[in-house]
Every structure is written in structure tokens, then in C-alpha cells.
UniProtKB/TrEMBL annotation:
It comes from Chitinophaga silvisoli. This is Aldehyde dehydrogenase. One of its GO terms (molecular function) is aldehyde dehydrogenase (NAD+) activity. The active site is at 210, 244. One of its GO terms (cellular component) is cytoplasm. Pfam families: Aldedh (PF00171).
Amino acid sequence: MSIENTYQAQQAFFASGATFPYAYRRKQLKLLKKAVKRYERRILAALHADLHKPPMEAFGSEVGLVYGEIKYCLHNLKRWMRPEPVSSPFMLYPSKSKIHRAPLGQTLIIGPWNYPFSLIMTPLIGAIAGGNCAILKPSELAPHTAAVIANLVQETFAPAYVTVVDGEGSEVIPALMQHRFDHVFFTGSTNVGKKILEMAAPHLSPVTLELGGKSPCVVDDKVDIQVAAKRIIWGKYFNAGQTCIAPDYVLVHAKVKDALITAMKKAIASFYGDNPATSKDYAHIINKKRFDTLSSYLSKGTILHGGDTDAANLYIGPTLMENAAIDEEIFGPILPIMTYEHLGDAIQYIKQHPAPLSLYVFTKRSSTEKTLIEQLSFGGACVNNTLGHYTNVELPFGGVGYSGMGQYHGKYNFLTFTHAKAVMKTGTWLDVKLKYPPYRGLGFLKRLMK
Ligand code: NAD
């Protein structure tokens, strides 16, 4: 079907009201869950083909999270859909007010290549829960996963409800966005995010932007150094550093720098063995272009550990660096380490970059934790952990400033894909004359509204 026909078909289907009832949404979520189960092996194989993703990481961060999101949504959807009563001021007596969560309509979901399955499926769950239609655009840079998503969706949903459009993003998305979407949900780079916002502007389409940025990891001198090292190394080299919320760089208190580096080297060896190139638990770089960009960073500082590359296998070993001047988001397995002596200096350094998507703080001092959380702007944070906040469906996930706008996951996914309709209903048994012209009750009104 052409883009034009797909768009028209979805418009007609949404207008029919078929997607509105709770029973319909519930059934579609269950169908999606069954389809993911049916396709599970193919999804994991595709993720391996695209990124050499270890099955444990692929299941945990792509398939398992999608099951979790559907389960949570099925458990709560009825309650979320119920109009929410709120109080009404005395002045409006006898009125009652409620917030109705209304479906938006036609939605467009655009995904990146690094978590190419879950970052399309998770917003789709929100779109279905909200009673919407959806066009999905997976990343062409993870072609095996994009093909599996297309098959899964085609087998599960009518194209007038949910469908996949594939191809080069720079061609397909502008063609799609000549039409008005009731919501555009984009996950990807900040540069393309700006273009999405521009394309949405003429239609006044609401947009969620899930972008990237440099997520700092601050390590205080009062800290469990072994645990900190393991959790930083795990979070950094998960998916070979190709995670939007991966620790981008470490700011460690000068007193514990050497101990941290020693513990980090030990953690790398214990996770991936002496030669990570042969590890089944270590992902590879998505393509040659990214491999070349990342390889060029290796000459921008002093390598403390790793630095080995293999272009034929798109492999870059887990690398620790110091004196590294890398201004852009690294988005690969290279971890610059810098030191600070006063927390204020670490804060000043972090503030020089646009607001990060995530902040990681390792400390046993509640004052350090409190100061960093209060003084820095960031999307989400972990204290004494990395990545974990993303996986808690009770927490909103999203960026701030240049790391994005809007949130999703759990209830926030449903809220993003619905509109809050404010409805007030007033009884007719009492009709206070004072509010009507000719006006006489100004003094009374002033007393009431003070
Ligand atoms: P990208 O911006 O290059 O691509 C994302 C999507 O946009 C793809 O589907 C692509 O086809 C499309 N696209 C590319 N060029 C386009 C154009 N000119 N016009 C319209 N659409 C276009 O991002 P990427 O390289 O796939 O992903 C990496 C980036 O995504 C990193 O910056 C990372 O931090 C970020 N990211 C953010 C999150 C998050 O949740 N905040 C998650 C994953 C990745």
C-alpha cells in the first residue's frame, strides 16, 4: 500500500471508533504479546545478526521489557481509562468535574537502531493502550530486526490499524510527515529530532522526542569501589556502549581514581575474559561508519585499557581512556575517565554540556547524592547503579532540554498517547442569578474569589 493509501485507511479506521473500546485495546495488546512470543527466537536471531547482541542482553532489554510493559498495561488499563473525578470549586456549585483520557488518532512511531525492537514496540504498546492507530518506522540500519518487525506486525494487525513503513528515514519520514499525525513519537539523535520537530510544526502535531546526550557518572571518594566498578562497566559495555543511557564518561574523586581503574580492569576481565573479541557476551558495532567514528576517538586521549579493534568483525574492545577530549555523545565502548577534587568542580563540568538523559552517582554520602540531584538537570538518574531506572515501569522515562521532551513507560506511556479532556457537568436544579447580567454581585464575587 502506498503511504497515501495507508494514511487514508488509518484515518477512516480511527474515525469509525473501532479502536476506542477497552475490550478492543485489551485484545490487541494480547495479540501483540502472543505475536512477540511466537517470534521470540526470530527476534533474538535478528538482533544477533544486526548487532551481535548476546541473547541475555537481547532478551532482557528488548523482548523481556516488552512483555513487562504489556503485562503492566493489561493490569492497569481499565483503571487508567476510567474518567478521573477531581474537585470543583464552591463557585461552580452544583458542578462535578472529571478528566477523560481520549485517544489521539493517527500516530507515527520512529525508532533507532540500537534497541531496534523494544524502542518501536514499547511506544506501540502506549499507542494501542491509548486507542490509536499507528504507523511504525523501524531503523533501516538494523535491517534484520526491521524485517522481523514488519512480518510480525503484518501477521498480527490490519494495516488500517497498525502497519510498518520501511526505507531510508531521510526519504520516508518527510513523505509521511507531509500528512498530519496526532502524535509523533521519535527515538533517535538530537539532530534528526530537530528535523522531526520542524516537520511537525506546520501541522501542530504533538511530538515526543527521546534523544541522546552525554550521561555522566560521578564517583565520590566515599564509595564501595568494587561494586561501583562492576556496575559502571556493566552499564557502559552493555550492547557495547550503544545505549542512549550508557555512562558516557566518569568523573571520579582524585583520591579513589587509581582504585577505581584497577577495579574496572578487573571487572572487564571477569565479564568478558582476557580477549573480549571472542566473548559471546559482548556486542559489536552496528556498521562501518560508526566503527570508523568510534575508532577515531581512540587517538583523542591516553588509552588505559583495551583500545583493540577489528574492522572485519566491527569489534572495538572495552576501552578505558584518560585525558580524552570527546565533546559529542560517544555511543560506543569507550569510557573516558576524569578526576575532580571538589564536588562543585564536577557539577560545573557537567553543566558545560547540555542536560544529560541520565545521571549516575556512586556514593555513600547522602549529601553528595542530594547536591547532585538538586543542582543538575537530567532526564533520570540512578544512585549506586546504572541503566536500572529505565527498566522500572513505575518511573517515567524521558529526557530534558537537548536530551528530549515528553516521557513514556507504564502509565506515562498511556498518558503520552491520550489527551486529557476536561469535562464539567453542572446540575440544573440550582441556577444562581448573580452570575448573569445585569451584574449586581461584584462585592460577593470578590469575597468568594479571594
Ligand atoms: P537517528 O536519528 O539517525 O535515526 C533515528 C530514526 O530516524 C531512524 O528510524 C532513521 O531512519 C530516521 N531518520 C534518519 N535520518 C532522518 C531524517 N533526515 N529525517 C527523518 N528521519 C530520519 O538515530 P540513530 O543513529 O538510529 O540512534 C542513535 C541515537 O539515538 C543516539 O543519539 C542515541 O542516544 C539516541 N537514542 C535515544 C534513546 C532514548 O530513549 N532517549 C534510545 C535509543 C537511542
